[in-house]
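Annual report, structural modelling task.

Input specification for the aspartic acid complex:
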Amino acid sequence: MLRTHTCGELNMQFVGRIVTLCGWIQRIREMGGMTFIDLRDRYGITQLVFNIQGQPDLFAKVKELGREFVISASGKVAERSSKNTKIPTGDIEILVDSLKILNTSKIPPFTIEDNTDGGEELRMKYRYLDLRRTVVRKNLELRHRMAILTRNYMNEQGFIEIETPVLIKSTPEGARDFVVPSRMNPGQFYALPQSPQTFKQLLMVAGFDRYFQIVKCFRDEDLRADRQPEFSQIDCEMSFVTQDDILATFEGLARYLFLEVKGLDPGEFPIIEYDSVMRDYGSDKPDIRFGMKLIELNETIKGKGFKVFDDAELVVGINAIGCAEYSRKQIDELTEWVKRPQVGASGLVYIRYGTDGTLKSSIDKFYSPDELKVLAGKFSVVPGDLMLIMAGKKEKTQTALGTLRIEMGKRLGLIDPTVFKPLWIVNFPLLEWDEVSKRFYAKHHPFTSPVPQDISLLDTNPGAIRANAYDLVINGVEIGGGSIRIHNCDLQKKMFQVLGFTDELAQEQFGFLMNAFEYGAPPHGGIAFGFDRWCTIFGGGESIRDFMAFPKNNSGRDVMIDTPSSISEEQLKELNIKLTS
Ligand code: ASP
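The model returned the following structure:
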């Protein structure tokens, strides 16, 4: 080894020892006849001291050094006179008597410190420099730890990790596929997996019983802060299980990760029905760290001549606690905020419960003070509160108010970032009707089984069928989801019919799975967790990008290696591809 120790391990116990450290120069400070260098490696930072007295040659060499030079320095460990309590090596320094420049460095385009001066795009371009920053490195260390712990837990539970192929056939899971042209089969394409869904089911048919994999998945979607074209899942499948078994097994995984990584016991995970979370929180991934539940008002509010409410499928409100003092301007701003397409509300009605006990609303024309009092009673408000009400189509209105609930929770400081509140959501609708194409789509994917009591509805009322599916949500983020699968060939065929597949199309796309089901498919089910998201939540980050070594930017580009990029005429020809523009 070129070094005797790392930059993170020396302390008072080493005083007097001769050591050699290697690393990058983070900072150089000159003071009188002394030069101080902060030397950094993956493990920490150690202060080097160069003294001009008696060491003119060494001192001359120090003058050549610059930020991010890679050096090796040897000398004696000494106690510092002014200690730095912020770092583990802060009690000591190295009195250097020999220095080697292992490599020079250009001046880096941004400072390699926790609070860097580099903008996002620049840091992405020089990601290898960004990764030198402790804050970024720590995220990847956390990711590594989560992966190791996951593998430990899964192994303990008898799961085996099996790799599934990356060049596969398109599986419809709601997103677009990335495709790869096949040179040897002109005009034909592979697809990159959106998930290993069908493979893990085939592994159950094969009798593997308990499978998992930390696996790359690819979805060609529009990007947002918590999306990347390639991302990782903890993908799992089990045979001979019910929904309860799966929830118990993976609540176990979550609890284990909470304990090991965050050092906290998250308590029992509530299991809540989809309909209830939509009714109470206006979201299928509710943040239950705070209350402010949605209050349905149909019965109390309708029939007083206010057309907007009378015509609405649902009238629903929240209590913005302590916001009665909101000015007209603030309420107007809030109204504009909810009318943006991202929220999609048609408007916002308010009832203000003044600290003097009076009720004042934007619908005073239609509701007498007594009627307002009855309404206020529904909210269990106290003087000083502000009721915010929306009306319209049921789900759309619930969702819009759910979005406002989160916003108000943030504005009012009701969300404690140190608290974790996981929950399971169950009994999702199996299908979603699409008005444009006039057909049903699988809300999860076409392999999800209906809850057993609802199977008969496939012929009569498919829209009412509940899925034997579940999501794990933590603090308003969907961490994972899965389902008990269909394992019966006839039921799977029926499902494809309901989804508008012709028998030929179903056979062409999923024949391999349905055929497999004819050879003794065990009852099975599984789940997949968004690994990057889970790391982000545990790391307290904003974007999954910060927890990936080499992420892509918002337009799906890797600006460091500059891709996607064009390929040569020759390659195109070989692949039998003609570009039209
Ligand atoms: N394959 C599903 C997904 O990626 C998860 C599952 O059903 O196991 O969402």
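Residues 195, 197, 481-483, 526-528 surround aspartic acid (CB under 6 Å).
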